[in-house]
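Our preliminary data section would be incomplete without showing what the modeling component actually yields. Below, a chain of 243 amino acids is followed by its predicted structure, encoded as tokens that our downstream tools consume directly.
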Amino acid sequence: MASTFCSTCARYSHEPLLDPLCDDCGPKEPGKRKLARLMARARAEHAADRAAGIARFGGRFGAPDYSDIYWKSAGMQIEWARREDRLGSYGAVCAYLQRHAVELALQDLHREATTIHQDVLDNGGYDRVPVLPYPRGHKLKTLYRQTADALARLELPMPSQFAVLVEALTRLERKDETRLRYPTGTDGRPSFSKRVAPPIAKWQHLLDELHEQHLDCRDDFWDEPRDQWKLGEELYVSIATID
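Predicted structure:
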């Protein structure tokens, strides 16, 4: 085989894929060539966005992983507040980020359990057992009960961290799931007229355990990020963030 010259990288080679934008050493199949050029442009765009401070997300390769985002944002906010000695000032924001991370994780887990349940029904299993409804609203205890029931129908346990977090956050909210978001509750009174002292660092540790033990997130933008809910070594849910 004759060697080819890449005008971009200035190399002779028998190997393909030296430069995805090069007509000589790039991929020869039209579909692969198109994808390679798309990814090369995306890398260049990503570098330019980082330099300019632009946040670009959405679409086929940039779907946000909300549960992961809120979990990590809570941890970063707590670290910053501790460093700046501002835990009291930013405690409500930290707790809200944690609360939303828990809600999103419960919703994701319920959605995937329901999908698995439907797949089993479609293949003749669980004779005449109805498909579970998708949980509505934002009440953590309701979401917890529905998700635990969905997993129980699949004979799968609920990660223990959820019970602790849901109970603690529900007590802090006092029957108002918007309390951490606004200075005034749904009853028209101040959200926190009395001082509270939530252990947000302990809650973050539980969230960290939840994600590290049961959720495997790959952060590589170029590597088809996926969330994988795990029980020990057994994979029981896989959520693709790319179509």
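The chain is about 50% helix and 10% strand. The CA atoms of residues 145 and 196 lie 27 Å apart. Preliminary results of this kind motivate Aim 1 of the renewal.
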